TrEMBL record:
Listed name of the protein: Cytochrome P450 PksS
Keyword Iron: yes
Native organism: Nonomuraea soli
Keywords, sorted A to Z: Heme, Iron, Metal-binding, Monooxygenase, Oxidoreductase
Domain of life: Bacteria
Metal-binding listed as a keyword: yes
Amino acid sequence: MAVDLAATDVTTVAFKADPFPFYARLRHDSPVQPVRWMRGSTAWLVTRHGDVEAALRDPRIRKDPREALTSAQLADAPRVPKLFAPLQRNLLGLDGADHDRLRRLVRQAFTPRRIELMRQQVQELADGLLDEAARRGSVDLISDFAVPLPLTVIARVIGVPEELTPRFRAWTRALLSVTDRPLRSVAGVLRFMRYLRRLVESRSREPYDDLVSALAAARDGGDRLSTDEIVALLVLLLTAGHETTVNLVGAGALALMEHPDQAHRLREDDGLLRPGIEELLRFTSPVETATERWAAEDLLVADVTIPQGSLVLAVIASANRDEQVFVEPDLLDVGRNPNPHLAFGKGAHYCLGAPLARLEAEIAISTLLRRAPHLRRADPSAPVRWRGGAIVRTLESLPVLL
């Protein structure tokens, strides 16, 4: 039976379970394709590696819809509640000079030195979480390891008390659900923003050695970040800054369980760890599509015209399996070289947190391989549980035996 490509909903749980055959078909037959998106809207998928990379760099495809849509189109677009307006001024929602200004200021506080100093903390956290798991013998690899590790790290970096980490997980889940479950999520997001605003104001008066204080102190000539801008950046870091690592660690561990020969290679050769993490980034694509962009004019991509005002999604998960770029792209190969994956994006919006995500994944995966050499799913016959939604591809749970 022929599949109606335009009717395909790419946000469902069923689709998330295995999107790769659909993307392979698009690359071959329809590399630029409109599909169903959130709340019955339409999104244009760009699926070939070269076109995805070009879209991520194209100044005609804007992050800020106000710079791409006409007044009439903006009037018809879903309205962002005024309470959430401050969250729009973040690195993912701005273009050009506004984006460059924020990135310049944030970079001062998010240095490679600050990230490298976290190595010992991340290792101690990974070992502590696995100590607890070992006492039980079984564990949900997502809720008991992949989630608390990066969430605790980013909370420490920001300066959030550790006892609030579980509450932050609930708040970030609420924020990530705003698009498809707005009424259920509003209260959690408002509490999240209120707490962060108080934290910023406190650190402005009395600085600590943490990211909030560094952001409050950041200067570029006479320029500085406003409280709303810092809150928006913190929300971004606490969601994108840990959710993508959760996906990488969880889906990466699942991929290694499904490819024990590759797990064996990593255990036997420490030199493969870094290229192995790059391959897990390519193979699992923790960010399935780049975040939303809008066509500021009619665009011709792969001989298809994307109309001005359209929502454009550069499909990273498809680009990372493009057979024109990668030899045997559906094969996990921890020694793959070269590996020009696009997991962290390209261009001006390249992921600022990429070094931290790589550090956390290296430690998480290597610690699992060392301490749980017989890691396996608790029930191999049970279907793997994925979560529906936009942008990311996330495991709901992954019960394992150590």
